Amino acid sequence: MNHDHYEDAYIQNILESVKSIAVIGASPKSERASNRVTQFLIDQGYQIFPINPGHAGRKICGVPCFASLRDISQPIHLIDIFRNSTAAYEVVEEVMEITPLPKVIWMQLDIRNDEAANLAQAKGLKVVMNRCTKIEHKRLFSL
Hints:
- By secondary structure, this protein is α/β, with parallel strands linked by helices.
- It has a single domain, classed as NAD(P)-binding Rossmann-like Domain (Rossmann fold).
- It contains five helices and seven strands.
- The chain has helices at 8-17, 33-43, 85-95, 114-122, 133-141, and strands at 20-24, 47-51, 59-60, 63-64, 78-81, 104-107, 126-128.
- A five-stranded parallel β-sheet has the order 2-1-5-6-7, with helices on both faces. A two-stranded antiparallel sheet has the order 3-4.
- β1 (20-24), α2 (33-43) and β2 form a beta-alpha-beta unit.
- The longest helix has 11 residues, at 33-43.
């Protein structure tokens, strides 16, 4: 997989096929990109699970926030990572411990970790790096 370029069909298929998304590093602060993306994804009809240990038990964008992926009792299709590139590997390691595995690991703009991508792909997950779910959704699905 060439992570420097993704075909539109690859991204579109991901965004059309997933229904539930965990946003790792979600923030309650409206000025943060993770908050704006979380709200956008909710508005598009995705089931969102914000993950932020510092805000667990509270709500972000009107939905309950969790401390970790292990606290979610239902399948998650896509993991949307708003952590730095170094932390992305730890996130993917945690993802490998949940059952069932998600379909996709998505690293937001400026986040790239090839080792994390290789780990996910070795388990059959699709990977997107250095792309924004909101930007890609708007680009591919705007009328």
